[in-house]
Amino acid sequence: EAQVTQNPRYLITVTGKKLTVTCSQNMNHEYMSWYRQDPGLGLRQIYYSMNVEVTDKGDVPEGYKVSRKEKRNFPLILESPSPNQTSLYFCASSLSASNQPQHFGDGTRLSIL
Amino acid sequence: DAKTTQPTSMDCAEGRAANLPCNHSTISGNEYVYWYRQIHSQGPQYIIHGLKNNETNEMASLIITEDRKSSTLILPHATLRDTAVYYCIVLGGWNSGGSNYKLTFGKGTLLTVNP
Q1: Does the beta carbon of A106 lie under 8 angstroms from any beta carbon of chain B?
Q2: Is the pLDDT of residue A23 over 90?
Q3: Which residue of B has its CA nearest to A109?
């Protein structure tokens, strides 16, 4: 089944403890992206990747890192999480960055205490 | 990307067609109209997209006016599982020089399908 898989789905952790949210897609998609969704603020893009080894900042990249060493994986890294990074996170992928629908994972709900 | 305007909420009876309107009067010639939906806190789900012709797939139909300034998403036989927030998005069709392809969701329309 074609899908975007995020892990973990839920995580409660403490300020400053490094964490990684994994994202994997099995559709051979070139484009991958991370979004966060907060009440009243809608969906905001954190980072995106046009292809392997090509990543760039979205609208709210502060406090996050990403890497794209393989086509299928696009992990989101919070080196030193803070409470303002408490949010619902979505990973998405599409065949390319041109007129192709984006497929989303089920989301990761992070709580940083 | 062009801005879109959607009603805040709509109701629909189960089994009836749900018609969700969207205004995008500033759409430009190479921009597509996309529809996504999000069932409470789940990942957004792609529904359909189109440029100027009407489109139909297994989920829905998309009717775009001739001047492309508005469109309507039609769910032909709404079920309770179609209750969700529906987002209409206008997006450039061509990626030039590595430009971003981000989705920007506005407030959308909360469609409630009633039994």
Answers
A1: yes
A2: yes
A3: B41
